[in-house]
Amino acid sequence: MRIKPEDQRQLAARCIISIRNGVGESRRELSEAMEMSPSTAGLYADQLIAAGYVIETGLKHGVMGRPKRRLEVRPEAGWFVGVEWNGNMANAVRLDFAGGRLDLESRSFKEGVNAMEVMEVIEEMIASLIKGKSGRFLGIGLGAPGVVNIESGTVGDFGFIADWNEVPVKARMEARFGVPVTVANNLRVIAVAERWFGGAKGMENFIILGPRSGLGVGLVIGGKLLDGVNHAAGELGNWGWNGPLGGSELHLALSAPAVWRRLTHAAPGTPLPEDLRWEMANIAAKLDDCWKEVAQDFGQVVGCLHLLLDTEAIFVHGPLCGLGRGFWEAVVDLSIVLMPRLAARRPSLVCSTLTDEAGALGAASLVMEHWVPIL
Known about the structure:
Blueprint: H1 5-20, H2 27-34, H3 38-50, E1 54-60, E2 68-73, E3 79-85, E4 89-96, E5 101-108, H4 115-130, E6 137-144, E7 147-149, E8 154-156, E9 167-168, H5 169-177, E10 181-185, H6 186-197, E11 206-211, E12 215-221, E13 224-225, E14 240-243, E15 246-249, H7 251-254, H8 256-264, H9 276-284, H10 290-309, E16 313-316, H11 324-338, E17 349-351, H12 358-370
Parallel strand pairs: 3-6, 6-10, 11-16, 16-17
Antiparallel strand pairs: 1-2, 3-4, 4-5, 7-8, 8-9, 11-12, 12-13, 14-15
Helix pairs in contact: 1-3, 2-3, 6-12, 8-9, 10-11
């Protein structure tokens, strides 16, 4: 049966991803990864080489058998831009076709920033990254806070940016820059970054825990990002919580600003320090009894997540990584005190090695995964 041209392009895109992530480094490995015959895999490889997306170089020597020609994605075949933001700051990155970092930008938002101002900053950052650059600009990936409708590319339900409701992010950026745009929740794009660049390589089940301007989780289950019927999977900050503020939502107790104010005994609304991660590292050196309350709250959250999902690892992202390994080990210990059955399957809680650019890397990687070549 003849394959439709669009289906052929989708298969070619999957071949590129297999080659890029190293599971299709030869024609035979590509056929195994794609579950297609060696001859069909060879035809796709030839097409991608002819189109300038892939090269075949050198020899790959295995433990046994004849050496195989190595397939590699051509870095100069084009580039992608990724931007991720929350209520405090935005980060943007430009990646080449092989996933190599080319440029990076970061901007902080003023207190009380509104949706229009945020979108203007995002546009400025993208324009700055692409100005004067040669080669093919292939797409933009965006990691947006709140509930993201991935089909329409509209974003809403985020209380830390004024007027952030049904913002047409995808349509606006495609009209401005004329390239395909992919939009997802910012913690889900961080999960993509962790899989490509961080500690989750090869993992099928893991969680991103993001206590940043708000609080949420990105969930990868069975190798797939969990989105939810209403695109709201992972909105952990909306949990009802009987914390230090009484009956309230969880983000009011465990977002990065809330934790900083709890640990410094600052009044609600106290302006945040410019570098919150650095401040957390300073606080970690002289923690008083208050840190135990914060650690116990996180222990309850981590324990519940692990009991519910039983994942390989939970990766912490954001300024609270500055509290250090000792704090997060205490969180795990307290989760077991609260939920003793976890002792037999101790949660693996890891502060990510990726820093503030993680979301931008993930957003660019996500659009790379969605991009389809023209053959």
